[in-house]
Amino acid sequence: MGYKQDFIEFMVRSGVLCFGEFKTKSGRLSPYFINTGNYCTAAQASALGRYYAECIKDNLGDGFDAIYGPAYKGIPLAVSASISLYRDFGIDKPYTFNRKEAKDHGEGGSFIGYKPKDGDRIVIIDDVVTAGTSLRESLELLHGCADVQVAALVISVDRMERAGGEKTALDDIRASLGIPIFPIVTLDDIVETLYNREIDGRVHIDDACMEKIRAYRKLYGPVA
């Protein structure tokens, strides 16, 4: 799995990928949780940018014009990924992110950094996507600025669960919005990497945890 396995181990060691019982925003009781707000060091930001950059390089090469990170969590992701793309792969692309409130003085506007232009192919970077609400807000902002094309959405983890329909949330978004979505890893990758395997002397997905994950996926996974 290469960098995917490294990324999963990195999330565990960073306290971002946790196992237990967690209430999600939708009210579901999940046996695992991904809290990207726990990244807080320079070393973590550098490594995280590299994982996003590898995912972008593998799926898009340099076939895009700019990276957009939605405020707030997407801001450090866009900056660190763009740094890694240049430093590690020689791909020099501008980045941009939005203000929560449009500035009505000085240069004004809703964007900081690169200003999207007509015809630009934009890569949106975010942490995780549940129902696609924040993605739709990003699309509204970007299309309100210029006639851009969203080349892809890149996220850290695909939880592989339904938001409401029979398909996964990401498959619903792909179908409704026509946007390619590339997760660095999926829940399947996480299970394959961690099930009954020690990370720093601890097994994070043992048989008991695995049964809880299977039960959760039976309830909220895609309908076959």
Provide a descriptive summary of the structure in words.
α1 packs antiparallel against α2, α1 (3-13) crosses α6 and α2 crosses α3 (74-89). The model has no long low-confidence stretch (mean pLDDT 92). The chain contains seven helices and ten strands. The chain has helices at residues 3-13, 42-60, 74-89, 133-145, 169-177, 187-194, 207-220, and strands at 17-23, 29-34, 66-69, 95-103, 109-113, 121-125, 149-158, 181-186, 198-199, 202-203. Strands 5-4-3-6-7-8 form a six-stranded mixed β-sheet.
Quick description:
With 224 residues, the protein is α/β, with parallel strands linked by helices. The protein has helices spanning 3-13, 42-60, 74-89, 133-145, 169-177, 187-194, 207-220, and strands at residues 17-23, 29-34, 66-69, 95-103, 109-113, 121-125, 149-158, 181-186, 198-199, 202-203. It is 40% helix and 25% strand.
State the end-to-end CA separation: 26 Å
Shape: globular
Biggest beta-sheet profile: 6 strands, mixed
SS class: alpha/beta
What's the helical proportion of residues?
Answer: 40-55%
Report the average pLDDT across residues: 92
Low-confidence stretches at least 5 residues in length (pLDDT < 50)?
Answer: none
Can you count the beta strands?
10
How many helices? The count is 7
Strand content range = 25-35%
Arrangement of strands in the largest sheet: 5-4-3-6-7-8
Computed Rg:
18 Å
In N-to-C order, the SSE pattern is: HEEHEHEEEHEHEHEEH
